[in-house]
Amino acid sequence: MAVLCTASAVQKSGSVTRAHASTRKATAVHRRGATASASANRSPAAAPGDGAASVPSRRAALAALVASVASVGAAVNASPAAASVDSLQAGTVRHTDAEWRELLSPEAYSVLRQSGTEARNASPLVKEKRVGTYLCGGCDLPLFPSAAKYESGTGWPSFFDVLPDSVKTEPDNSIAFMPRVAVVCRRCEGHLGHVFKDGPPPTGLRYCMNGVALKFEPQQA
Ligand SMILES: [Zn+2]
């Protein structure tokens, strides 16, 4: 099983955009942007139509078009309203390589920014059983609920599900003849681990994470 989480030799492309805001501020900006985007996309449907819209079939077609555009806009967060709130980079966290080295421990930097893999059973989070949320170690974005954690026996914190809009996946062919799917933080693009299709129900997925790339936040009593 150990090989399934073997370190990737692929160096992630450096992020050179300087962050303009703290992590928490970035979160707030993103949420405002998403809200503005959603309301802006809904408003055309709610607004009174012109003469053409009085024809039922035209109105239905228009509504379908608006719904379609709203759906795509929400997916890529690229509506004009969102862009006016912030740039199209809203909700992202970027640092230079030098800044990441200052912000992270050497172990976390190796995983998050160089796609490394921690040793099995190296993280205390492997045995963490409290109720709470697992955050990105690079930018504090909530990634996994404790309810989705399970004991995989691999020696790495494992989850069968992930919070919405928290991670991205990308192909990882760094090991010959063993294509894998890498999991990165949606917000800071830090490498977190890999996802495999041998997890438990209901998803059948196993998010094999590096504990050093995560932070655990216990639920407040
Ligand atoms: Zn992150």
UniProtKB/TrEMBL annotation:
<comment type="function">
    <text>Catalyzes the reduction of methionine sulfoxide (MetSO) to methionine in proteins. Plays a protective role against oxidative stress by restoring activity to proteins that have been inactivated by methionine oxidation. MSRB family specifically reduces the MetSO R-enantiomer.</text>
</comment>
<keyword id="KW-0560">Oxidoreductase</keyword>
<dbReference type="GO" id="GO:0046872">
    <property type="term" value="F:metal ion binding"/>
</dbReference>
<dbReference type="GO" id="GO:0006979">
    <property type="term" value="P:response to oxidative stress"/>
</dbReference>
<protein>
    <recommendedName>
        <fullName>Peptide-methionine (R)-S-oxide reductase</fullName>
        <ecNumber>1.8.4.12</ecNumber>
    </recommendedName>
</protein>
<dbReference type="GO" id="GO:0005737">
    <property type="term" value="C:cytoplasm"/>
</dbReference>
<feature type="region of interest" description="Disordered">
    <location>
        <begin position="16"/>
        <end position="53"/>
    </location>
</feature>
<feature type="domain" description="MsrB">
    <location>
        <begin position="97"/>
        <end position="219"/>
    </location>
</feature>
<dbReference type="GO" id="GO:0033743">
    <property type="term" value="F:peptide-methionine (R)-S-oxide reductase activity"/>
</dbReference>
<dbReference type="Pfam" id="PF01641">
    <property type="entry name" value="SelR"/>
</dbReference>
<keyword id="KW-0479">Metal-binding</keyword>
<dbReference type="InterPro" id="IPR028427">
    <property type="entry name" value="Met_Sox_Rdtase_MsrB"/>
</dbReference>
<feature type="compositionally biased region" description="Low complexity">
    <location>
        <begin position="34"/>
        <end position="53"/>
    </location>
</feature>
<dbReference type="GO" id="GO:0030091">
    <property type="term" value="P:protein repair"/>
</dbReference>
<dbReference type="InterPro" id="IPR011057">
    <property type="entry name" value="Mss4-like_sf"/>
</dbReference>
<comment type="similarity">
    <text>Belongs to the MsrB Met sulfoxide reductase family.</text>
</comment>
<dbReference type="InterPro" id="IPR002579">
    <property type="entry name" value="Met_Sox_Rdtase_MsrB_dom"/>
</dbReference>
<keyword id="KW-0862">Zinc</keyword>
<feature type="compositionally biased region" description="Basic residues">
    <location>
        <begin position="21"/>
        <end position="33"/>
    </location>
</feature>
